[in-house]
């Protein structure tokens, strides 16, 4: 319902400030409830943020990290979001965190989604933190325009958990948390960088169908305010 823009001079400054905010939120969750959860995105944008967050002094042993979405590829595949998190976030102080992958070595992506939903069911009611990205086509998580399960993924009545998505722009079949799983995170962040993404965001904020630019579902209907972190 609400979006707040946080603009920074450059990606390094953004990474540091976002890491500070996320660390503060996770620490507050541990203090209040004894544990904390965070779902993070993949793609090319979050690497510097992950590295900054990995060095923050919080009680990582009480933090569970999972992914907003994942390709149906094993963790040694260069396109795996798990691999990105493994190499950039699950190190330094954050090496003590518990990581829940979405990829499962199942025969089909549908079976993997069922197993991943079961494996992650203890976290995210709601997530303490969810970090979303956005593609140039207006997708977020694996909510792709033209996606095979897009309407179900965006339906607020679809239960929390992971469903599959196949789309022309997605490459491999995907596993993604549903809209209902992510929209009420205590800290809901949209992390985007570059002038091009700012233009995509402006287009998404204008009138149009959610199915054309699925990030609109978050911008319009998320229960939590969307904190937009942007740098040129
Ligand atoms: O496919 C994906 O892309 C988006 C955005 O990625 P970027 O490379 O434009 O930063 C990402 O949020 C999502 O998790 C990922 O699976």
Automatic annotation (TrEMBL):
CDD domains, A to Z: 6PGL
InterPro entries in the cross-refs: 6-phosphogluconolactonase_DevB, 6PGL, Glc/Gal-6P_isomerase, NagB/RpiA_transferase-like
EC number of the protein: 3.1.1.31
Glucosamine/galactosamine-6-phosphate isomerase domain residues: 11-220
Annotated metabolic or biological route of this protein: Carbohydrate degradation; pentose phosphate pathway; D-ribulose 5-phosphate from D-glucose 6-phosphate (oxidative stage): step 2/3
Domain of life: Bacteria
Record field: catalytic activity: 6-phospho-D-glucono-1,5-lactone + H2O = 6-phospho-D-gluconate + H(+)
GO biological process: carbohydrate metabolic process; pentose-phosphate shunt
Molecular functions per Gene Ontology: 6-phosphogluconolactonase activity
Swiss-Prot/TrEMBL keywords: Hydrolase
One of the Pfam families matching this protein, by short name: Glucosamine_iso
EC top class named in words: hydrolase
Family: Belongs to the glucosamine/galactosamine-6-phosphate isomerase family. 6-phosphogluconolactonase subfamily.
NCBIfam families xrefs: pgl (TIGR01198)
Described purpose of this protein according to its UniProt entry: Hydrolysis of 6-phosphogluconolactone to 6-phosphogluconate.
Descriptive protein name: 6-phosphogluconolactonase
